[in-house]
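Q: Here's a chain of 196 amino acids. Please give me its 3D structure as tokens.
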Amino acid sequence: MPTGYTAELMNKGMDFKSFVFRCARAFGALIMMRDDPMDAPIPEKIEPSDYHVKALAETKQKYKWLKTMTNDEKIAFGVTEKEKEIKVCREYLTKAMAENDRLTKMALQIKAWKPPTSDHEGLKKFMIDQIGISMNDLSWSRKRLEKVEEEPPVAYYAAAVSNAEQGINYHNKENLDEIKRAADRTEWVQQLRASL
């Protein structure tokens, strides 16, 4: 049975060089082409992804925006972020409590159930164990909500600045790594072309 790599070879025939480049799509330098059409040309040069360049620009813009805020804007920003975080924490806690309520109601039904035979006792125990395993630990959610409610708005501003600084460092490093990977892939393709 033909594969995507051998179908044309088996149906129409193919020269060695074409087959080599078709199969090369499954390897490191050209792995990003593995899902492209088989007749898509192999590039002479592998261009680096611009993902980190774009993310770096966005993060720098956000950092600049944060750093140019007035004290009142910093507080307003922090209040907004705090409100969002409180909402998320409350929604999670509400959801976890509703899940625990459903589990508790089921546990009561299981405990009230009389298994038809002693062979079914293991099933009852298993069901009770599953309920226990599935119960949400609400103490963490409550502590998280308390902590969020106690945080001053300026702490949310400081966290946003810190996250932006970390993002700038991260995207800078990743972009340099991507440029090197693209150069290495280009070299791999050039070496492959030269060998043919």
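Q: Can you summarize the key feature?
A: DSSP finds seven helices and no strands in the chain.
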